[in-house]
Every structure is written in structure tokens, then in C-alpha cells.
Specification:
It is a single chain. Helices cover 31% and strands 31% of the residues. It is α+β, with helices and mostly antiparallel strands and 215 residues long. The chain folds into 2 domains: 38-105, no CATH class; 109-212, OB fold (Dihydrolipoamide Acetyltransferase, E2P) (Beta Barrel), CATH 2.40.50.870. The two termini are 45 Å apart. 19% of the residues are buried.
Length: 215
């Protein structure tokens, strides 16, 4: 009889605690914002260090350099000269570039509407008094200040209630942000010292808590 009463009490306590348990945020890493099936083996991992350096130079140059012109002709000649060695190593640069673009632009639709918690650094968009109420959350300090910015699925637009904003004096300190995440692509203008830049964003959050980062 005592065992039955104890079991009943435990079951009742569990049921009473279900709402609280349901409200526990899912803790995310930045990799969780990229579809898992895209995070397979790095096609460049088996190359020698020298081959990797060459491949990354070609990839980064092709992704950031303007189209062919008299000013870029020499750079493109160097890229063309590197291609045979990469093909011999089994690397198809066009496929690698396509895969990198897919990894950078794909979003995880299943996250939409979830209560989550994620660490990062913020770049203010709107300030009320001493509190930042709208900001971009990014995975590393200085992101977006330098070109190029992180890919869209590595930037979260965050809006916090005015009284739940974050101290603007702590801009370069990491934070934890908790709130409802939305899978919503958008573009925001980030105003910098030397002008403004349009930033493409893959996610947004309605934050209910912004706090200093702690392990």
C-alpha cells in the first residue's frame, strides 16, 4: 500500500512539473544551425598541408575576387595554374564551391518556433538608453565588422524587450541568448565606422533573456 501511495505521489509530482520541463530551452551550438547531413567529411581533409593551403587559397580567391578584368587577370592566371595539381589530387573545385555555398545558405527548418539558448557575440542595431534592444548575434567577436561577414545561417537577428535589453558597454563580451527562434531570412543594414553594409540573415529570435556568457 505504501509503495502504491509513493508511486502515485511521484507520478503526480511529475505531471505537475511537466509544464516547467517543457519550458527548458534547447541549448544550441552554431553547427546546429546547419543541416546535419551537410556536415560530413571535409573533402580537403585527406590532402597534404601544402595541397590544402593551395585549395583554400583558390577557393577563398574565387569567392571574394571580382570577375575577370585587367586588374584581376594575373590572379586568375595563378588560379588556372593551380587547377591541374588540385584535379590530380582528386579535388573538383567547382563541386567544393557548390558544397560550401549549400552549407552556408541552408537552414534547419525544424528549429522554427523552438525555445533555444545559444552563446555568441552581439552587434547592436537598436539602442534604448543604455540597453541594446535589437542586435545581430554572431559566433565570433568582430564578425560583420570585417569583410566578408559570416554566412546567413551563422547570423541571428535578435529582438529583446526594452526592459530586457543588454548593457551596451559590454558589446565585446560573449553572451547567452534565450528565446524563441524563427527560421526567417532577412537583410539588415549594419552601420559601421566607414559606412554601412547590408547583412543577409538566416534566423531571428525573440529574446526573453540575454545574460553574460558562463560555461
Amino acid at each position: 500500500m505504501k509503495k502504491y501511495i509513493l508511486a502515485s505521489l511521484m507520478a503526480a509530482c511529475t505531471l505537475l512539473n511537466l509544464p516547467a520541463l517543457a519550458q527548458q530551452p534547447r541549448q544550441l551550438t552554431w553547427d546546429d544551425l546547419i543541416p546535419a547531413h551537410l556536415l560530413d567529411e571535409d573533402p580537403l581533409a585527406k590532402l597534404s598541408q601544402e595541397q590544402q593551403d593551395m585549395a583554400y587559397w583558390v577557393i577563398n580567391t574565387l569567392e571574394t575576387m571580382p570577375k575577370k578584368s585587367p586588374q584581376t587577370e594575373e590572379d586568375y592566371k595563378q588560379i588556372d595554374a593551380a587547377m591541374p595539381a588540385l584535379r590530380q589530387a582528386g579535388i573538383d573545385i567547382k563541386k567544393v564551391l557548390a558544397k560550401r555555398k549549400e552549407i552556408r545558405t541552408s537552414i534547419v527548418k525544424e528549429l522554427d518556433g523552438q525555445l533555444v539558448r545559444i552563446p555568441g557575440y552581439f552587434l547592436p542595431l537598436e539602442v534604448s538608453g543604455t540597453k541594446v534592444t535589437e542586435f545581430l548575434l554572431v559566433p565570433y567577436v568582430g564578425a560583420c565588422i570585417h569583410v566578408p561577414p559570416p554566412p546567413p545561417n551563422q547570423i541571428i537577428y535578435v529582438k529583446a524587450e526594452q526592459y530586457k535589453g543588454y548593457d551596451n558597454k559590454k558589446i565585446f563580451e560573449p553572451v547567452w541568448v534565450t528565446g524563441i527562434i524563427s527560421v526567417k531570412s532577412m537583410s539588415k543594414d549594419l552601420f559601421l565606422v566607414d559606412g554601412s553594409a547590408g547583412i543577409n540573415i538566416g534566423y531571428s529570435m525573440q529574446a526573453n533573456k540575454v545574460e553574460p556568457y558562463k560555461e
